[in-house]
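User: Reviewer 2 asked us to show a designed sequence for the structure in our supplementary figure. I'm pasting the structure tokens here. Could you produce the per-position amino acids so we can include them in the response letter?
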């Protein structure tokens, strides 16, 4: 006992139950635990564990905040790669914002005095690479879509996704009604179905109308040669397409025209001075050549007219000469008299001058009326100053 007491005095914390009261409490707690175990084993109702549902969102939010505020995430956010990513994302957003803001109706009009659509400014801004990032991303998106439609069965995937979603929804609804008395789809159903606002539909229809009018106006401007260069380019494109469509698939033509439409303006912009100088030289050469051709054509036309006039004069002189010789032969044979032959065109001397004095002059005034002249015993010969001859 002495050893025990000395040990407890030296190490008092080794035996916390120093009194009898402590022993009785310990025995009681052990007995209570035993009774609880026995009751749980023979109880007909299994014990249920209740989780504080209201604390789950808070715990998830706290976990997310702790991850977000961790040293690793903070170091990544403050690193150079994160800064570069944010910088590129901001530039991309700004580029697309500028592209969307370019949809303004231009001040220029068509040859008929009509206003253009805002899509003229939009496509000009897009294809002129004024916002290079937005143009490049648009081109890549179109190319990816072309290859996707060529190599990926998008329609089959859409149908597959549709029947899988509808099958899962129907199965969950039927299973929920059989097991729980209420389907899962019914629980997830919103109180009100979503409807497209009228303002949204009107804005979309207005935008589609502007897009359709853009293509209609441009087609008419090309057909009626408002810009001869564009019309010639459209003719060349149509001619090449007529032959390429026989050997190139549709997706290849789409890829070709997309590449040409995006990169030809870029090539022109990068070499504008060089291309404009050569175009100006070509126009000057064509204009000079056209002037030379016009001059040559005028010279040859004048020569042809002079030759034709000389030939006509020669043939006319020969004809007059033949007519004069024929009349001379007729006079010599006594067919006609010399006076008659002289009055006919082409005299016997070969001259064929017919003067205006050879024809009677037309009356310049209306002839005088002579109503009742015979009643007064005046004959028409006396009225005009003519008298009958007197016979001895």
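Assistant: Here is a per-position design you can include in the supplement:
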């Amino acid at each position: 006992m002495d050893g025990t007491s000395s040990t407890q005095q030296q190490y008092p914390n080794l035996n916390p139950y120093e009194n009898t009261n402590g022993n009785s409490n310990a025995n009681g707690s052990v007995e209570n635990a035993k009774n609880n175990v026995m009751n749980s084993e023979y109880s007909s109702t299994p014990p249920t564990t209740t989780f504080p549902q209201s604390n789950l969102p808070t715990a998830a939010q706290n976990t997310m905040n702790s991850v977000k505020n961790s040293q690793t995430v903070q170091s990544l956010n403050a690193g150079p790669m994160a800064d570069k990513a944010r910088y590129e994302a901001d530039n991309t957003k700004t580029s697309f914002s500028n592209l969307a803001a370019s949809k303004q109706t231009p001040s220029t009009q068509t040859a008929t005095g009509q206003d253009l659509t805002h899509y003229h400014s939009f496509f000009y801004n897009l294809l002129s690479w004024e916002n290079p990032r937005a143009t490049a991303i648009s081109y890549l998106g179109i190319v990816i879509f072309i290859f996707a439609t060529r190599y990926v069965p998008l329609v089959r995937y859409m149908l597959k996704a549709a029947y899988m979603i509808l099958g899962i929804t129907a199965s969950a609804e039927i299973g929920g009604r059989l097991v729980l008395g209420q389907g899962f789809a019914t629980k997830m159903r919103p109180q009100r179905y979503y409807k497209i606002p009228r303002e949204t539909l009107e804005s979309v229809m207005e935008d589609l109308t502007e897009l359709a009018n853009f293509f209609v106006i441009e087609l008419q401007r090309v057909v009626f040669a408002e810009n001869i260069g564009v019309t010639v380019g459209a003719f060349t494109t149509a001619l090449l397409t007529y032959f390429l469509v026989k050997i190139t698939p549709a997706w290849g033509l789409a890829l070709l025209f997309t590449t040409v439409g995006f990169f030809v303006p870029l090539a022109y912009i990068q070499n504008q001075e060089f291309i404009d100088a050569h175009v100006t030289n070509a126009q000057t050469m064509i204009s000079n050549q056209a002037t030379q051709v016009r001059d040559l054509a005028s010279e040859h036309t004048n020569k042809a007219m002079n030759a034709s006039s000389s030939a006509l004069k020669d043939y006319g002189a020969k004809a007059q000469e033949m007519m004069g010789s024929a009349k001379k032969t007729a006079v010599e044979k006594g067919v006609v008299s010399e006076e008659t032959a002289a009055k006919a065109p082409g005299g016997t001397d070969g001259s064929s001058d017919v003067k205006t004095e050879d024809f009677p002059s037309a009356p310049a005034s209306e002839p005088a009326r002579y109503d009742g002249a015979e009643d007064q015993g005046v004959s028409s010969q006396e009225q005009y100053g003519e008298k009958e001859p007197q016979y001895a």
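For the response letter, you might also mention the following. The longest helix spans residues 272-332. The chain has a mean pLDDT of 76.
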